[in-house]
Amino acid sequence: MNIRLAPLFTALVTMGTITLPYADALAAGSDRFGISLGVFITERDSKTRIDGENPGSGTPIDLESDLGLDKSDSVFRVDGYFKFNEKHRLDFSVFDLSRTAFKQIDRDIEWDGEIYPIDTDISALFDLNIYKLAYTWSFLQRDSGYLGVTGGLYIADIGTTLAAESIGQVSGAGVTAPLPVVGMRGEYYFSDKWSFRGSAEIFAVDYGDYSGSLYDIYAGIDYQLFENMALGLGLNSVKLNVGVEKAGFNGDVDWRYDGALAFIKLNF
Q1: Which residues contact 76 (CB under 8 A, 6 or more apart)?
Q2: What is the reported pTM?
Q3: What is the pLDDT of residues 155-168, one digit of tens each?
Q4: pLDDT per residue over 193-246, tens digit each?
Q5: Domains by residue range for the chain, with CATH
Q6: All residues at 6 or more sequence positions from 113 whose CB lies less than 8 Å from its CB, including other chains
Q7: Cβ of 202: how many Cβ atoms within 10 Å?
Q8: Is the C-alpha dihedral spanning 181, 158, 245, 237 positive or negative?
């Protein structure tokens, strides 16, 4: 098991074996639907290569250091869930990690079959929209919380454009990568006010147009401020390494983002 996943899995399994001393814990988790609106403060490390007609011909570039994209950023994020019953639920997330930059490059870059010479002023646009959908079956149910296995899709909608007005060149590529993930999800109620939520999802595939791996880890604390409103803080770490070979996008994406999430959760 990946060393980064081990502590979270241990915490989730331990959670399912503890009996909560607070009688109100079950009521705290009895809602059917919830939506979280938050600010996601991210730190990113992004490496990408886009080939032209010849596989492997593109220049591997660091988007932050080579093209000047911001390494840190704050974005709006929506998360939510719907419980069919005590054992079955759907979770979803939507957020936009797109960035733009303008920089004079300090080396030659080949991108999607086009050559951008050293000292060229480059405008860069990198669209990255994330959509996550996961089903969870809770095999452990306690008054103190639940522990379940989860499976779903991590959908990365990726678009890239480089433009150099001085030499009249524009090149870009885009792909929507639906990546299947499996993992575990759980929640533990310390009291009727405080709860811990965690999840760990992984993916590895070498099939068709896609090959690579992904992990997505979340851990956070919620405080139930009112009956239908909670405040929370969380940490989310994601690493995505995918090779794509299809029309419109041929290359490698090696992206990682780690971030802190502050949110308001409405539950019904």
Answers
A1: 37, 38, 39, 40, 95, 96
A2: 0.83
A3: 999 888 999 999 99
A4: 999 999 999 988 777 777 889 999 999 999 999 989 999 999 999 999 988 887
A5: 6-267 (2.40.128.90)
A6: 51, 52, 53, 57, 171
A7: 16
A8: negative
